[in-house]
Each structure stands twice: as C-alpha cells, then as structure tokens.
Design a protein that fits this description.
This protein is mainly α and 83 residues long. The protein has 3 helices and no strands.
Length: 83
C-alpha cells in the first residue's frame, strides 16, 4: 500500500514540475507587458465596482457619476488594449 502512495506522489511531483516549466514558458512577460497587464486588471476591478455601485444607485446624480466612471474606464481599457 505504501508503495502505491509513493509512486503517486512521485508522479504528482513530476507532473507538477512539467506544468511549472510549461507555465514559465507561457508567462514570461517583459516589465512593460507586466505593467500593462497590472493596469488592465486594476481597471477591470474598478469597472466591476463602478458597475455594482451603478446597479445599487438610488440617486440620479450618483447614477450619472457611475455611468461617467464606466465610460472613462471603458475608454482606458480600450486605450491600453492597443498598446
């Protein structure tokens, strides 16, 4: 029984190492690409929050403010998509 667990563990370790090699090949980004990706992720989180706030807005003024925020965030996302 112990042998089965050991071989399974070794198989998992080998598979994990191979996955790490594959992902490191795919995920090698330049510092500029990393910065753009980080900015994109921040904008997406801000957009999700603005959308949530818009959906729960009760005041027309606040609703307009959140709509403007969404327009701005969408424009920024479009801008960095072209970089």
């Amino acid at each position: 029984m112990a042998r089965g667990w050991e071989s399974k563990s070794v198989e998992d370790q080998i598979a994990g190492r191979e996955e790490a090699k594959e992902s490191s090949k795919i995920k090698k980004l330049t510092p500029q690409q990393r910065e753009i990706e980080q900015k994109r992720n921040q904008l997406l989180m801000m957009r999700a929050r603005a959308l949530s706030m818009l959906q729960s807005a009760r005041s027309d003024g606040y609703r307009r403010q959140q709509e403007e925020a969404l327009k701005y965030l969408d424009a920024e996302l479009a801008r960095i998509a072209t970089l």
